[in-house]
Amino acid sequence: MRRLCLLSLLALSSCMVGPDYHKPVIAVPAAFKTAPGWVPAAPNDGAPKGDWWTAFNDPVLDQLMPQVAVNNATVKADYYAYMQAADLVREAQGQLYPTLTITPSFTRASGSSSGASTSSSGLISSGPSNSGTFEGQASWVPDIWGKVRRQVQESSAAAQVSAADFANATLSAQAALAQDYVSLRTQDATIALFQQTVAAYQRSLQITENQAAAGTAAPADVITARTQLEGAQSSLIAAGAARAQFEHAIAVLTGQMPESFSISAGAQIETVPLAPETVPSTVLERRPDIAAAERTMEEQNAAIGVAVGAYYPDITLSALGGYSADPITGLFSASHALWSLGADASQTLFEGGVRSATVAAAKNAYDASVENYRGTVLSAFQSVENDLSNLQIFAQQAQVQAAAVADAQRAVQIALNEYEAGTQAYTAVVIAQVTLVQDQQTALTIQQERLLAAIGLYQDLGGGFTAASLPSKAQLQAGLPFMQ
After folding, report:
1. Domains of the chain: which residue ranges?
2. 445 CB-contact burial (10 Å; exposed 0-12 / middle 13-18 / buried 19+)
3. pLDDT single digits (tens) 17-50
4. For 161, left (φ over 0), alpha (ψ -120 to 50), or beta?
5. pLDDT digits (tens, 9 = 90+) for 359-371
6. CA-to-CA distance for 402 and 449, rounded, in angstroms?
7. Is residue 106 within a helix (H) or strand (E), and if so which, with residue range?
8. CATH architecture of 2-96+145-312+354-478
9. N or C: which end of the chain has fewer CB within 10 A?
10. Closest CA to 454 of 371, 396, 391
11. Could you give phi then psi for residue 168, rounded to 5 degrees?
């Protein structure tokens, strides 16, 4: 009979209330609109690996980037948040097992009693007595309806969400570092440009001063040339201030104090990486934010099962065994043994619709998570399309702008020659020089935008992340560490 009851409990415990999770199917395009010829035959071969930033061929960036995962405060905070979520998985899993308690006790007491020796005061006293118990208790709430297992599923999915958030925080910090580094190098190039401009304007000022001394130029030309030089010097100082801010931002991203951190001046990054090979469907597996949204759906789905489990009774099995006697004369004796077995069940009969409202709320939370997942996917494809179009458009613009810079350089030389020959007013020189500086600044900005678009594409394609990078439920329940 006992075996039959036990088998019945085990059979019931194989059931789990609530719906089983099924990942929603999201329709994805067959190819990206901006790059129809970009889809390769083997999409995984060209997927960006973990060190995606090495495609920019910059040794300083390669040295800075690993410090993000080690020292960045935001990334480390997300890591510890994941560790907390992983601990909650094991906490929920522990509810599947019995609770065992051991309670030993010992008492020694003395008092009065009849029939014992009489003291001088007339009181009847007895010698000290010993008593003791050694009890072990066990209680177990069998997960007959699967409510605890749904809690384990919910906690496991939540931990996977936290792991994806950790990966996303790491990728975001890496992308932010790359963006700030690109901007810093652009400021370096801008500073170099203004240094060259200041030198050129100094030569122009010398020419106007010589012409004015010879009586072939008006004094106004000297004032104009000097004003132009001072404006360039002011712009040079402003570029230095902007560079310092990017340097400070990089220091914080790498977990260092800004005052003790510095980067030597260098040229603007020239290498714009080619678009990494992929196909639209792989975006769903290679973005940590999409992975987090998908895992949130399973978490909310399991929460429905936890809520539904409140409709079913809780059954508690308990057992007690031990000994009670004088521990000196012999505690662990069969004649002093005691034991008890028990079982109880509790079921709420009326609660004013609380359970039904809880289940409905859990279902609505799941539906909301589905829409959030769908929105995250759509946003991901939008971002990738934007990055691809930016790369194409800025590459075309860079070619046109390079021609504009070359033409502006020739225009400056012609204007200077004509001014020195006395056939052109100095205003023509000023206009040509201003146009050249503007065109050169635009060229630097276009290169910066191309690099930022490439960084954005790597980020929007998930960097080196894949959904397989997340810890499995078995790893979480076993307490194994998470390694990205």
Report:
1. 2-96+145-312+354-478
2. middle
3. 778 888 887 777 767 776 554 433 333 334 445 6
4. alpha
5. 899 899 888 989 9
6. 15
7. strand 99-109
8. Up-down Bundle (1.20)
9. N
10. 391
11. -70, -40
